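dumping the sequnces here before i forget
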Amino acid sequence: MSDSDSHGHYASCKSAKERLVQIQPQEAPAYWKSVAELQNGPRSSGEFPGGLPAAGQSGTTRRDFLALMGFTLAAAGLSGCRAPVQNAIPLLVGSDQFVPGVANWYATTCRGCAASCSLLAKQRDGRPIKIEGNAESSLFGGGTCATGQAMVLSLYDDERLRGPLWQGQPAGWEELDRRVAESVATAKAGSGSIVLLSGTINSPSTRAIISEWRASHPNFLHVEYDATSLSAMRAANQESFGLAVVPHYALDRARVIVGLDADFLGTWLSPVEFTRQYANGRKPEDAPSLHIQFESGMSVTGSNADLRIAVAQSDLGPVAAALLARIARRGGHAGIGPIEDPIDSRKLDAVAEQLWKHRGESLVISGCNDVTVQIVVNTLNVMLGNIGKIIDLTRPSLQRNGDDQAMSDLVEKMNRGEVHTLFMLGVNPAYDYHDPARFLSGLEKVPLSVSFSDRRDETSSHVHAVCPDHHFLEAWGDAEPVATHFSLAQPLIAPLFGTRSAQESLLKWLGHEPADYYTYLRDYWQKNIFRRQRGVPDFQSFWDRSLQEGLVVLPLLHPATEPRIQGNWRAAVHSIREDQAKHRQAGSADRYELDLYESVALRDGRHANNPWLQELPDPISKVTWGNCAAIAPATAAKLKLTDGDVVRLRTVTQQIEVPIFIQPGQHAQTISVALGHGRNKVGRAGQNVGVNAYPLLRVKDGYRLLSAREVTLEKTGRSEKLATTQTHFSMEGRPIVLETSLEELHQSSEVGIEPALPTLWAARPEGEHAWGMAIDMNACTGCSACVVACQAENNVPVVGKDQIERIRIMHWIRLDRYYSGPEEDPVAVHQPMMCQHCQNAPCETVCPVLATTTSSEGLNQQVYNRCIGTRYCANNCPYKVRRFNWYNYTDNPQFDFNMESPLGRMVLNPDVAVRSRGVMEKCSMCVQRIQLAKNVALQGRRELADGDIQTACQQACPTQAIVFGDLKEPNSRVAQLQHSQRRYQVLDELGTRPNVSYLKKVRNPVRTT
Amino acid sequence: MRVQLALLALLGAVLAAGAGAWQLSRIGIHQGYSPAQPIAFPHKVHAGDNQIPCLYCHFAARTSRHAGIPPASVCMNCHNVLEKQTVEIEKLKEAVDLAQPIRWVKVHNLPDFVYFNHSQHVQSGVACQSCHGAVEKMDRVEQVSPLTMGWCLRCHREHAKVPVNDFERAALSLKQKQKPTAGLDCASCHY
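..and the predicted 3d for all of it:
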């Protein structure tokens, strides 16, 4: 080596070192994951972060161990000598549609919630095994939510009923049909009414069946009831615009979004659609929209806001009124008296300023089920000129139709004995009604009650007849989530059990001929949808095309006129003001307010028996398996409470005992508790996990508010362990998440790629491709759909609460949520973290058996059959993304989740190995999809194109925050993103050369002073 | 004499240990496995004497990871019209009449931790016989190849051309359209 050479080398090392020092920006925000971490610094996890079993606990001696090992070896050797006979059983009659080993995809519609996203479901060897969004949908795109991803597992739920029940005993369909027909006939003749109590029904054909019931039975009543309803919004829109609808929003067109306790990115109304629109409107390279969120507890939506203002539940109305007063003043509307600002006036001024500046392209959106608040919000939107531009009332959303008042009327009617026959479809009021005792006492007085529930749940265990409905992957159906947007649902598998679709039951009991729902659906589409379209001349082609694509968008039936504001909004403001004054008088420092919110995974509780969803960390608290009461750090300090301390929350009539969780950003006087937990009759996975908070909710003017006032908090002295993943895999305080500001981004022009740090490693042989990934942290909202998508695609096992407490969660992709700023008002950032597929991977160098190596295409590959389980690799991984199989999670009664039962194992992806005990596993970048795409390209005799391969996480992402592709292909999206100004690589200074890059989060702070 | 005996004993021990080690190394290798089938289907008659192409019956091998045993309906395509009757053909017809799927015994078994895709090989022009042997001469199918990783790699190494410089890459990209290269990465088969 010559002198100049060595000098040059030295210089480059030096500059590299300087860069290394500079990597931590001078004013880098200090990030923290939990309050404990903020106060005590990042937790050093030590050598055994999960803890060691206490010595002396085990009864096995060394001698026993050796004896057992000897026996095991001998037994293993002997059993290995025999060839196990495997059978291959082909179909009797083949089909050109069905080739074993080749997946078919069918368009269908999700019924995980009433948002009714369009789906493509994957069927492999006759079994549905994966759900993906239908990219053709103009509403939802190709994204899904975590719940939607997990719906395929609900199909294989062991708790589903095998057939109908009469008085709790298995019965035949004929017997039930006879009994229901008799009851309906008696009801028709008598005075009692026939009632169908259902959740939101946006299926047009099902609504047609209900209309037929109404037409032929004068005493028929249909009541729609949602556990988390938008009933007040409909009532307010009736008053303001004369239309009792839930509007359809266009968040992507709004320049300013003001949310008032509406978690529209997490659970509210249509989160997949909103998340997609939201991210589209917030691309930092264009002019991103500004988002201000007023809320009590930290929600997914709040964690993404540019300005998040924590307010008490009781102040949401006054905040809306105060904003209205400011806007009205600017708009020259008189008549609003002085309103006391519930929060810092400067903040309200700033928000009003932004709204006024973007008149006609702003949006105020509220999730409060309070008519006065909704009227004020309507008036705000009208005065800002947003109606018709951002808010569409002419093509309303049909995703939430529940009517709180009709439901409470029905419960009273039942108690008065005026209901003769009650059908319940998709509801569980004995669990989620605020007064379940009243509902159940009414139910006892109903001569015939029928539930379509798929299991013995809280409600269906009290009815006369259970007529289990199909899972949506077994059933025909249709939906109209937003007016004029229709979608079809088709079965992917013959019904697993003796279930029958609810529609067919209703048709049969109506005496409709034929009672077959498929025929009815087809006829309905022929008579209604087909007639309204112009494109296709004959129905058969139209039907085939609709079924194939899953979607039809029709023109509006009647071009509606623009609604005008009416109604007395001044009265609403007055009422809010009075309510505020009343609450101020009653309030005291030791009385708290309660904020109840829908859980991102379990939603209103109907998915509680889905182990994937139970094990999905909450996007904010990162708590799995159960809910907790989020309280502010200051409040916790005042009451001397720590995480996991069980407290008793008491309203006037009800109480629950729930462990607390210290939540940064939580409003000091408000406690937030997730709904959807604490089911006591749902199945093995979800039984009594968490606490049911529905009984605490307050009813105001007949509307179910997801909040309560005058709540007292008492310590019980007990403490529970929370299975939280938030402090797993500590990054030891290193700069992992980087951010920039919008100003900085638009000013500077430097291009992202820095010359790579010098390396000691020799160049590797390169293959045809170099797979890489780019993750946009500005687009990621933390919704966690990717986590469940990965779990479904890669056969990731569920390990249960106990194992999670020991830091043994198996998820290949995790969403790290970091806070920065003060604990009472932090800003959050979400970072999906999975194997970074380092080119110089630290895991590889420590593996004694070469079980993990880098492929010629840049993938860090883990070979399960080579791995001997030293776990050196996991210890040496700076990203903490490797997962060890501590147990066999398959067919192991200790882990009684889906992989324990033959039925639950039907969801497994046959293209991915099921790992056994003692081996390491981690993200493979969906190598099975890469190989499949290569194979498909080979069969078509063409080259792989950019976009042919989508990893499961990328596909599920509603915001397209994850981009996968070939870094060697200069025009691929992922290669293009490498030139982004925002690009960086995590822990780049270690010289790992990851193939995964991140794009910095962009902050766009709102000046409030 | 004593020394000779000792040497003989040692030789015996070494041979026994060697044979044992060889046996141990053959655990899980089922070369020569030829189980009886529920219907004694002769490949020799079909693929040999009558020269029916492999992919006529095993059509899935073109598009799927599984070559697939043909559905009974494929058998009946011909046997509906053929007049010849044997006991074995009767069994087939009985299965079809009773709608009773046939439980064939799988001959070629790979462990669960390896992914093998028939279509990838068929599309790349690998002859069925390269792995399955001369099936057209077999009355009862027998596993001819050891199906071990070393055996797979012998062929993969021959057909893997990893380009190392721009020239080779360019040269390969001209050829590659016709013939794809075999993977040598672990993750080509293990995932």
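The longest strand of chain B covers residues 104-105.
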